[in-house]
Amino acid sequence: MQITASTVSLTVDDVAASQAFLTTHLGYREQAAADGFASLTHDDAACDIVLLRRGIDVLPAEQRDRHATGLILAFTVDGGLAAEERRLREAGVAITMPLREEPWGERLFQITDPNGVVVQFVEWVKAEV
Question: What pTM was estimated for this model as a whole?
């Protein structure tokens, strides 16, 4: 088996709100969409995202009322993390966890989309020894 792409499927209450957030602020673009469904892709190595409206009947009955909670959608970036936080802040996106650096060399910050999906940006830096 060869994996050719990675996709995360998120069940949300308002597909259009998450879709607009991801396309406006994070550079995703729509691949396909229908009532209660959107498939988004990114031009680089980011994973694709499928948004499904909670309760949609294409999901098995036991999955229809689940919500994308407790999940952190994390993107590792190569440089420019502080500039990206500043760009998002200036665009009016609430930074729900400000930029910080951990002692083990992880620099990160978080934003949250309109449906409560936490998006984290991570950049690895050399830890001081």
Answer: 0.87
